[in-house]
Amino acid sequence: MNRVLRPKCKCQLLLILIFILGFALRLYHIDFQDIWRDEAASINAALQPAQMIVDISINDTNPPLHQLLLNLWMKVFGKSAISVRMLSLTFGMLTIYFTYLLSTLIFSNATYRLLTALFASINPLLIVYSQEARAYSMLVTFAVATIYFACRMNRNARLDVYLYFILFSLLGLYTHNIFTVVMAAIMIALFIGILYSALHHKKNGLAFQHCDFKYAALSYICISICYLPWFIIMVQQYGKVVSSDFWLPFHPIKGLIENYGWFFTSRHYNSSLTVLDWFAYGFIRLFAIWLSIGGIILELGNSTRSLLKLSLLVLLMLGIVFLISFKTPFYYVRYMIFVVPILLTLLSYGIRDFLTLFGRKSAIILTAIFITSNLVFYLNNIAQNAFKAEYQKALKYIEFDPATDIILHPHASTFHSFKYYSDFPSYIYNPNRDIPYYEGLAYISGGDYYDGHLAKYMRLWIMNLGKDGRFERDLTRHGFIKVKKKHFGRRLFVDLWLLKQPAGLFGHSRKLDSPVFYDP
User: Fold this and answer.
1) Looking at residue 503, what DSSP letter applies?
2) How confident is the model at residue 1 (pLDDT cuts 50, 70, 90)?
């Protein structure tokens, strides 16, 4: 009896250690980056009452579940950077858990189950989005959970499997509109699996019977009914996206290659790589890309699993997004992050069935180098790379005098972060009201714009992303001249503009004192 229990206890202990490692990596430097504009928009919206959150989401491009949950979270834990990002960290840990559960359906050997969980815990992309107060970490969790229960829908499945499938499907659909791709891919993959079983007269435990097909169909009907209210809104939101200029370009071949590599490294690394970083980066891409592709091919050709193949599922998800991107370019690593746990599972599959052909010792050594490379590249490069704008430093730089100054934003993007960090009044200066929707237009009210006379102020503090020629010409036309400009990372600049001849009490021009700057 002890001999039977000992391996199980060892496996559980190793799994706990993997979870501890994943938690530590996600907690490390969680507040190193400032809250950036998209995070700030989500947080500022989540601070509103529930009905207003729903209204904002309807006018935006995604469902309200993340912001509603963030609203409850902040009521308990506050709105500090650590607090709001801990919600995403929590879902990041759940992603590791469901990835492990998914691997139990693929591997009978505990080694490959643990290896898959370890890959999920150290994957740089999953770590990065576990440290961001956005919906992407939730999206991944609900996607891998939905896929896990979809894989369990077979002739031996209990009713609770279908109920969990319905639950996580709805949670995902109300988290992000891109989740419709997951649901479409699962439906197509299930249909192909059922058709394959029927044509080849499969009678193993994974094949559907007619009554099981009815349960799956009923599950999709229930999901459709519950999602219908938002589906109508989602169609309208997609129409708005299609009719407007999207913020991403689409280069089919380049995008296909780049994004597949970013699934394993993320794209948030410092391009000034050291020799050690170069080795780690190169080895991660070489090892993960080829072995995950090998895993896709091998699992696709495995005839013992006739129902839902992960390889088919990931190809369908990537293919659907790729085709959509010819109309609206969603083929970007952030929007497709939900495929990462599946690819990591298939990576383990490739190690088991392909790499081991070169010998067990070689497989162990190369896998160990891959694991070490992930840790080195994340800790030494990504975790130290301030790839987001430094809004807190920018705010300290501004010497604001409410009697003579006004703070303006030519873009809504900087407005959101300023509003999160500061109680100073600031406004969006955009007389044409042509702010694009992807800058968080839905989160802006009429009172956030400035429509008054600029000449009544002596100094304008401008938070800008790069150089806006039209905006600067407008300020010059109003009699202002730019005297200071300072960069705070990620295209964020703070400019100081002075009125050339500010009028005194009796119409005489008066000289401004030299502004005082605090340069942290």
Assistant:
1) B
2) very low
Taking the C-alpha atoms of 279, 282, 286 and 289 in order, what is their torsion angle to the nearest 10 degrees?
Answer: 130
DSSP for 177-241, please give it: TTHHHHHHHHHHHHHHHHHHHHHHT--STTS--HHHHHHHHHHHHHHHHHHHHHHHHHHHHHHHH
d(CA 488, CA 105): 48
Place of tokens 């000289």: 511
User: Any residues with CB less than 8 A from the CB of 169 and at least 6 apart, and which?
Assistant: 142, 146, 183, 219, 223
Please state the domain extents for the chain. Answer: 2-30+61-384, 391-499
The stretch 329-341 carries a mean pLDDT of: 95
In this structure, are residues 388 and 490 in contact, taking their beta carbons and an 8 Å threshold? Answer: yes
Structure tokens at 69: 């949950």
What is the DSSP track for 93-135? HHHHHHHHHHHHHH-SSHHHHHHHHHHHHH-HHHHHHTTSSSS
Please check the confidence at residue 177 and state whether its pLDDT lies above 90: yes
When pLDDT is averaged across residues 234-253 and rounded to a whole number, the result is 86
CB 175 within 8 A of CB 135: yes
Using a 10 angstrom Cβ sphere, with 0-12 exposed, 13-18 middle and 19 or more buried, the burial of residue 333 is buried
What is the average pLDDT score of the chain?
89
Split at pLDDT 50, 70, 90, the class of 197 is low
User: Would you say 477 and 376 are in contact if contact means Cβ atoms under 8 Å apart?
Assistant: no
3-state secondary structure of 355: helix
**How would residue 99 be classed by pLDDT, with cut points 50, 70 and 90?**
very high
**Is 387 or 24 the better-scoring residue by pLDDT?**
24
Residue 494, SS3 per DSSP = strand
pTM of the model: 0.91
DSSP 134: S
Answer yes or no: is pLDDT of 203 > 60: no
Question: Strand 459-465's sheet: what is its strand order?
Answer: 426-428, 405-409, 459-465, 492-499, 480-487
Task: Identify the residue with better confidence: 137 or 474.
Answer: 137
| Strand, coil or helix: 152 | coil
